[in-house]
Amino acid sequence: MTDTTIKVDMLARVEGEGAFKVVVREGKIVGTEFRIFEPPRFFEAFLRGRDHSEAPDITARICGICPVAYQMSSVQAMEMALGVEVSQPIKNLRRLLYCGEWIESHILHAAMLHAPDFLGYASAIDMANDGHADAVKLALDYKKIGNSIVTLVGGREIHPINVKVGGWWKAPKKRDMMKLREDLLRALDMADAFVDFTAALPFPDKERDYTMVCIEEPNGRYPMYEGTRLISNRGMDIPATAFNDHFDEHHVKQSNALQGRMKAGGAYLTGPLPRYNLAYDKLSERAKAAAERSGLGREVKNPYRSIVVRAVESLFAVEEAIRLIEDYEEFDPAAMEITPRAGTGMGASEAPRGMLFHQYTLEEDGSIAKAQIVPPTAQNQPSIEEDLAELIADELDRPHDEIQWLCEQTIRNYDPCISCATHFLDLTIDRG
Amino acid sequence: MTGRPRLAVWKFSSCDGCQLSLLDCEDEVLAVAGAIEIAYFPEATRREDDGGHYDISFVEGSVTTPHEAEAIKDIRARSTTVITLGACATSGGIQALKNGASTKDFIDAVYAHPEFIDTLDTATPISDHVKVDFELRGCPISKTHLIELIAATLAGRAPQTPAHATCIECKMAGHVCVMVAEGKPCLGPVTHAGCGALCPGYARGCYGCFGPKETPNTAALSARLAENGADRRQIRRLYSTYNTNAPAFREEAKAHD
């Protein structure tokens, strides 16, 4: 196969509609294209003129898989624009909601969408019907506990209704929280078992030296909710408010999602690998022990092992949720007072699949003059294209089906959320 | 239907949340996969569309591109039953906020190269394009409704999804009325049931995820909202969200332009 095109016109087991193409000439990859054809929905346009208070509910609708991430970045941006500092109990409850989304989204991706790549199945249902029923049932029970956090704290698992600019509509009852704690204590063993399931998968032996970016929290916590700074493994350490000074978005022909790049040049990676590598010390002892047992090491550059990192992060999220519930006391009022004013605010948080940045400019009456939303998959697109070029280059002698499979598996390392980025996955290998 | 019915799940312009609801039925999803042949569901399986006939097609999302307007006709022709899942497929969804606005302005606001973007001027429900056999409402849909819909479809009966107002569900749940007691704007009296009056349970007014109920008296509600101090813009915004293109909400919003 010296000249060929490997292509998939509709990438499956991802959230949204994408495609990819790898062009091979004289036995070498000369081009890779990750194409997002998810139709544009124009959120940043129709947010103009809406009230600041509507942003968390409206932006949640960008993504049914990670609505909490949209709510968390948007409320923080709005609160900055309005000059409101929310209380620690409000922040802690938001972190708890986020733990629920991390568990639910990570386990959905790891077990239902990504694990079939490693084990050679078309879907998790085929996995369950062919000897892996216990693993799939474990994942479903575990995922359900993540959803039960979002349901109690947020009101429902998809598009939660309880998040509000300034705080919450209503603080949950301590006794309901303590019932949830019982489920989470049960989830601890499930979480360890799920790490062990992912660690036993066969991994391609491939690494890349990525530029990795994640948020940093002000209180020494593992990066999740409150991104006051943005850091990288190349020494970048900037306030999150300076995002637009250091990062650019480009509109390229093959994609309805803008592509993120660093102004200093080049692709970068956001998601579980950067968080793990840059904030390993902030994981719990039990999560570190699970990572060590899995052979992850202190540093992970093999993107295929991101599935294990997701499992470790999920274990961490279970423990963190238990801690937050144990410390929880009901508070009233549930939200800070808001007085509309003109201003600009930014919010950065860690969606399960990577950093999500929002920026809003408000008019005097608190309505939105300008909105900017930079989702993780948009930022990861250039890195996905580089992975396809670099990680597949020494595999071109294999049968077409196997190359295509490996390309898909490589893209799914990112847990791409294409509705988010637009904004589907479809593989073409063009060999002329 | 003889044997296991063949199901396809199709995505149009949407957030993926309604089809995710199927995977969020953690206790039921393996049983559903046993009773139904999940023949095409790209979010969950690598199996491709074989171009054949489907007994049931679930459609999520609204029609916003020329490609989607063509695709839905082909899906209808190859499906015995077409069921829409959620507000986007049933009324156009949040992206229908572009209807009536300048598409050029919208593209310019988001994209640097308008020439790369292929989009229609409107976001429209599936029923504007083809015959739909059943519509499940909600942004997102209710899991309970989804399981009821699947069970009913397998048994060959009509799904039981009450068409009364959220307001009735709220009374049944025993919540204190947030509009009467606290003056909070609430769309509960004109909104289709389905969520179990979730928002009033969390001390906020209903914001209409399930769209208009049958014969809603939106004018009376708007008058009451105005008495409580809402201005015309606030009332317009209230009707102009996830079901902005549902006729009853669209007309009431227009009356407050």
Automatic annotation (TrEMBL), chain A:
Tell me one Pfam family matched here.
Answer: NiFeSe_Hases
Q: Which InterPro entries match?
A: Ni-dep_hyd_lsu, Ni-dep_hyd_lsu_Ni_BS, NiFe-Hase_large
Superkingdom of this protein's organism: Bacteria
Protein keywords: Oxidoreductase
What this protein is called in its record is Ni/Fe hydrogenase subunit alpha
What organism does the UniProt record list as the source? Sinisalibacter lacisalsi
Q: What is the lineage of its organism?
A: Bacteria, Pseudomonadati, Pseudomonadota, Alphaproteobacteria, Rhodobacterales
Automatic annotation (TrEMBL), chain B:
Annotated Gene3D superfamilies: NADH:ubiquinone oxidoreductase-like, 20kDa subunit
Query: Does Membrane appear among the keywords?
Result: yes
Keyword Iron-sulfur attached: yes
Start and end of every NADH:ubiquinone oxidoreductase-like 20kDa subunit domain? 15-152
Show which residues constitute the signal peptide: none
Could you say which cofactors this protein requires? [3Fe-4S] cluster
Query: Entry's Pfam families?
Result: Oxidored_q6 (PF01058)
Q: What is this protein called?
A: Oxidoreductase
- Any idea which UniProt keywords this protein has? 3Fe-4S, Cell membrane, Iron, Iron-sulfur, Membrane, Metal-binding, Oxidoreductase
